[in-house]
Write a sequence for this structure.
């Protein structure tokens, strides 16, 4: 099975921020990718951005030298995932939408193929209810940009089997990732800590305690955060962050996790971060 | 292309310096190591690639896509000059 994994392609559902970044990672490591989305326009954008992301990865020395990149197939057809050795779901962070897509994916892929959900915080156990073989489902929380950040958070659901865990970890090793495995819980570890921190950072700005730049400079200069929480928020995407915070609030019963007003206001205005050119910071033209 | 400032070393260096200084909010000497000084993040590094390609009508491909070529204003100027030169030779 592992030998098969070495040569086979993977399928990624969802050509948004994370789907693109994960695809670029796999291609850069020589793995062929079938990228599936419901929108042709999104797929076209994705193709262009993935090309740039692979150049970005090369620029930063993130891919092994001399490795022939994988080939990308972008398609509207979920059936195209049928031959994949590993399937990754990376659609919008919406629990009911994810559940619906999981059901469809689960019908398409044969037994023995590990199914990975790239969620930042929806418990794997919850998504497991929508798949045919819960033992083959595991969570992998890739960070953005997936092709540059060396580590991923791996989530073992209560029903995840040993074979699936072994296959997922072996696949991640092939992608050059370091892994830390955690148990299933809303927000796991990284989102449970990071997302409320970003929410508080936005509240601090809204209350006038400090500017966006000052909050980030302090967290960077005093506490060693690589970019500061608000710059990180812009990279995550503020719509995704608001979704994730709402999920966390609902599932922990902690209402302070609800996205704060400043965050919601930015989402309503369409200022979603780097991907739209403006969030907490202004990025000028969108990187394309 | 004609002999506008965008094709001389000095003109290229000036244009790159202006772009980088504006984006990092600080003066940037031509020899300063932008990565070591922490002025340039990994994301901004890629913006530099895209900016140079658009501003100077060059394509930065293959082995040229490495950090050393973007380490300083001087390094970027040399890269653009080299690619521009090649472009003119083949385009003529």
């Amino acid at each position: 099975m592992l030998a098969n994994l070495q040569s086979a392609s993977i399928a990624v559902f969802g050509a948004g921020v994370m789907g693109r970044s994960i695809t670029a990672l796999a291609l850069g490591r020589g793995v062929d990718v079938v990228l599936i989305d419901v929108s042709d326009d999104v797929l076209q954008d994705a193709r262009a951005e993935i090309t740039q992301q692979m150049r970005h990865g090369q620029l930063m020395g993130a891919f092994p030298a001399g490795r022939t990149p994988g080939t990308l197939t972008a398609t509207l057809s979920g059936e195209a995932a049928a031959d994949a050795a590993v399937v990754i779901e990376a659609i919008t962070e919406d629990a009911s939408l994810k559940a619906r897509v999981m059901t469809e994916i689960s019908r398409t892929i044969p037994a023995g193929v590990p199914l990975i959900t790239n969620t930042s915080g929806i418990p794997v156990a919850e998504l497991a209810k929508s798949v045919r073989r819960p033992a083959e489902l595991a969570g992998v929380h890739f960070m953005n940009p997936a092709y540059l950040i060396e580590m991923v958070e791996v989530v073992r659901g209560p029903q995840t089997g040993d074979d699936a865990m072994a296959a997922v970890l072996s696949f991640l090793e092939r992608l050059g990732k370091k892994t830390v495995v955690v148990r299933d819980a809303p927000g796991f570890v990284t989102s449970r800590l990071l997302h409320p921190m970003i929410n508080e950072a936005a509240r601090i700005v809204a209350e006038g305690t400090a500017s966006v730049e000052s909050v980030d400079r302090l967290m960077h200069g005093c506490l060693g955060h690589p970019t500061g929480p608000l710059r990180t928020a812009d990279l995550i995407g503020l719509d995704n962050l608001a979704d994730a915070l709402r999920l966390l609030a609902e599932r922990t019963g902690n209402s302070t996790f609800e996205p704060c007003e400043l965050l919601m206001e930015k989402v309503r205005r369409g200022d979603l971060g780097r991907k739209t050119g403006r969030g907490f910071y202004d990025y000028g033209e969108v990187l394309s | 292309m004609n002999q506008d400032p965008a094709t001389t070393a000095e003109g290229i260096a000036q244009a790159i310096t202006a772009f980088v200084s504006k984006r990092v909010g600080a003066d940037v000497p031509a020899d300063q190591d932008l990565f070591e000084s922490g002025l340039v993040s990994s994301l901004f590094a890629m913006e530099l690639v895209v900016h140079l390609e658009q501003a100077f009508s060059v394509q930065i491909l293959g082995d040229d896509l490495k950090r050393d070529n973007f380490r300083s204003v001087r390094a970027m100027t040399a890269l653009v000059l080299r690619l521009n030169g090649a472009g003119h030779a083949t385009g003529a």
Notes: Residues 111 and 288 of chain A are 38 Å apart (CA to CA). Residues 2-183 of chain A form a domain with the Rossmann fold fold (CATH 3.40.50.720).
